[in-house]
Design a protein that fits this description.
The protein is an all-beta fold and about 750 residues long. About 0% of the residues lie in helices and about 55% in strands.
Length: about 750
């Protein structure tokens, strides 16, 4: 093969910086839609093995499929309980109609006779030449699995967690009782030992003989759905149900998830561990030997919680149990449920519920998406020579996955969101070509999140500019044509585009006032900026300081703090562009905005609180993305904040004549503020604690108030009364009165 690069170009001037949507990894491509294509673990798209439709029923699901006579197959369906005989050439006919709506299990004996397990009124039927006779009644509602051993003995996995051994018509017994709610899967290992997968504790058993088993693995997932063995003695097991069940410690009695979507009551399982089995580690005997009573050393109670949707946890996993019983997890998923697994020689294949996918899994954990049936689930797999038969649901069909490549296929990428209307640039694809092979690309675009009739049609195979119209969403499709048994390979695709420049958004503006220290005594310890520091030095003689020739001066206490205003804002750009800001202000009654600061890259401005006189002001912040966009496409966004009242002037207090009698004092004080209404007032007697006072009208809430001071009793002698009033801005005005 030779490597070719395909480019589709367009001249763009829609925005400042080009963005690329690139797909080149396994997880990138896995989100798309496959038709006749495979995907390797290293993110390479290629033609898939041939996938042919063998059978399409009118039933919602094919629950089981087994080999029939010659090259035919038997397929069991739900929810009308029919068995179809699917012959070569895609011919099919109803072989048998069950009296029950579900047939979850089929098996064929050595002479080619078919057996079917029906549900929910569990019976096992023997069907020969389309005529059925009841073979065994297991006394269980659900029959999940049927398997014949090499000696022709039939085993059944049923509700109640039992494995039944059936030796002849009407003759059967409990071979092993797991203590679980269901035995959902049966298989034989390479040594002919029976394997049983259970639900709801996800335990895989190897049944050694009647009433004796060994736990191969106890999964963290509720259900062991399927098993297969390989020539080296390894066992591959599929576990699922992580999104459907939560195995907590609390006991509850509602329903839990069960195989096939059937709801069953939860149960408490008690396993008695014998002294011998405790020494062996994992071997358990649910039934005691009648000749030798078991000596219990421990009792374990498994408690099952109700069905619960648990997001963010694994839905399913595939385990490999090595011949030495060590276990490793080869694959797990939080998005897909794995249903079945099949040994095909050098690797295994498994199927999932994501558009009916079929994967190949090698022993070194490499996963390849072999095919996608585009059905709801691929629920069962069957080996047919070198081919694989897959049974699906929604609708119930049979597919054959054969050797060699398909002659053609296509891949639809997931929809890409550019977050705004974009002008599409060029599409670049890395393609490994081959003789007679080709890959062509098409695109379509639209402004709804999912492609619908409002989207553009798929473009013609692109050999130049991407012709899809400007839009927010885009999707591409690759169409593959193979050569003689070979396939082209695509492992990197990207589309460059220029998104429409979206204006920035200023979300909020905050204006705060804070006090900042302006002077401190040299002898005072440093204070925080918001604290007012005062210092007075007094000698032990009572002198305030050294005398001068002019006398002893009074000490002046400077104003401890001044006010600062901080204007801050929150802004964002939907495109992630770097922003630059300009801040404006305007006083109430003024017509024009005045620029406070420009070309700011921070989101705060600090100014001296005294530069704005008392009054009501508005602040406006303008954000621009001009630093990263040319002038023709740069955008701005702005916000005007709520009005801010600036009041740095305290109220003016004027005291009237005090009215004193023998034991009390009355004093009226007029308080006036020019900017903000008064809020509270208080007085202090002889530098004592502050005592609240009332307004003459009973409420301190206006620019002018008459404050009434009432002191009773008032001791005889001279007294100092200080009255203090606060406005809404927190400014305090004071006055004093000396009474004798």
């Amino acid at each position: 093969m030779k490597c070719a690069f395909v480019f589709f170009a367009a001249v763009c001037s829609f925005g400042a910086s080009t963005t690329a949507w690139e797909m080149n990894t396994y997880s990138d491509f896995l989100r798309g839609k496959f038709q006749g294509l495979s995907l390797s673990r290293d993110g390479r798209l290629m033609l898939a093995p041939k996938l042919d439709t063998l059978f399409a029923s009118d039933q919602p699901a094919v629950w089981s499929v087994v080999r029939g006579p010659g090259s035919s197959f038997y397929a069991a369906t739900g929810h009308r309980g029919k068995v179809y005989l699917v012959e070569s050439g895609a011919k099919s006919s109803v072989y048998w109609s069950s009296p029950q709506p579900e047939i979850f299990a089929l098996a064929v004996d050595a002479s080619g006779v078919l057996y079917a397990g029906t549900s929910p009124d569990g019976k096992i039927f023997r069907i020969e030449n389309g005529k059925a006779t009841e073979y065994f009644d297991p006394k269980a509602k659900y029959i999940w699995a049927l398997q014949f051993d090499s000696k022709g003995t039939l085993y059944a996995g049923v509700e109640g967690g039992k494995v039944l051994r059936i030796t002849a018509a009407g003759k059967g017994e409990v071979f092993y009782e797991t203590g679980q709610a269901h035995v959902v899967s049966l298989a034989f290992d390479t040594q002919g030992r029976l394997l049983a997968g259970t639900e709801p504790n996800g335990i895989l058993y190897r049944i050694i003989e009647k009433d004796k088993a060994f736990v191969l693995y106890d999964s963290s997932l509720p259900e062991i759905r399927s098993m297969t063995s390989t020539a080296d003695g390894s066992i591959y097991a599929v576990a699922l149900g992580g999104s459907l069940a939560n195995r907590g410690s609390g006991w509850t009695t509602p329903v839990s998830a069960s195989p096939g979507g059937i709801q069953v009551p939860t149960t408490t399982t008690t396993i008695t561990v014998t002294e011998d089995s405790a020494q062996a580690g994992l071997e358990v005997k649910p039934k005691a030997d009648t000749n030798k009573p078991a000596q219990p050393v421990a009792q374990v109670t498994a408690q099952i919680s109700p069905a619960l949707d648990v997001s963010g946890v694994e839905k399913s996993a595939i385990y490999r149990i090595h011949p030495d019983n060590t276990v490793e997890t080869l694959w797990s998923s939080k998005e897909e449920n794995a249903y079945d697994i099949l040994n095909v020689g050098d690797y295994v294949v498994f199927s999932t519920d994501t558009q009916g996918r079929i994967y190949r899994l090698s022993a070194d954990r490499k996963v390849t998406l072999l095919a996608q049936t585009n059905e709801g689930e691929a629920v069962r797999l069957l080996r047919d020579g070198t081919s694989v038969i897959a049974a699906t649901s929604n609708l119930g069909k049979l597919y054959r996955l054969g050797d060699g490549f398909s002659t053609s296929g296509s891949y639809e990428a997931p929809v890409h969101d550019s977050n705004s209307v974009a002008r599409w640039g060029r599409l670049q694809a890395r393609v490994d070509t081959c003789t007679g092979c080709s890959v062509s690309f098409r695109t379509r675009s639209g402004n709804s999140a999912r492609p619908d009739k409002t989207w553009s049609d798929w473009s013609a195979p692109a050999n130049g500019n991407v012709s899809s119209p400007n839009a927010r969403y885009i999707q591409w499709k690759a169409e593959f044509t193979g050569g003689s048994g070979t396939s082209p390979i695509v492992d990197n695709v990207n589309i460059a585009y220029l998104p429409q420049n979206t204006p920035p958004v200023v979300k909020s503006i905050t204006v705060l006032s804070q006090a900042v220290a302006t002077s401190q005594s040299k002898t005072a310890a440093p204070q925080a900026p918001s604290q007012a520091a005062y210092s007075i030095t007094v000698t032990d003689t009572g002198d305030a300081g050294p005398a001068t020739s002019a006398g002893t001066p009074s000490q002046t206490l400077n104003r401890a703090t001044s006010q600062q205003l901080s204007v801050s804002w929150q802004a964002e750009d939907p495109d992630g562009d770097k922003l630059v800001f300009s801040v404006y202000f305007r006083g109430e009654g003024e017509r024009e905005w005045k620029l406070l600061k420009a070309n700011l890259q921070e989101n705060i401005v600090v100014l001296d609180g005294d530069v704005l006189a008392d009054g009501r002001y508005y602040f406006r912040v303008v954000a621009s993305d001009r630093l990263v966009n040319p002038p023709s496409t740069a955008r701005t966004g702005e916000l005007i904040g709520i009005p801010v009242l600036i009041d740095n002037t305290p109220p003016l207090l004027t005291a009237g004549e005090p009215r004193r009698n023998v034991t009390s004092l009355e004093l009226d004080v007029e308080a006036v503020d020019a900017t903000s209404p008064l809020r509270r007032a208080e007085y202090s007697l002889d530098a004592g604690p502050w005592t609240p006072i009332e307004a003459a009208d009973g409420l301190i809430d206006s620019l002018r108030e008459t404050l009434q001071v009432r002191i009773d009793p008032l001791p005889a002698g001279e007294h100092l009364i200080v009255v203090r009033a606060y406005d809404a801005a927190g400014n305090a005005g004071l006055t004093k009165v000396v009474v004798r």
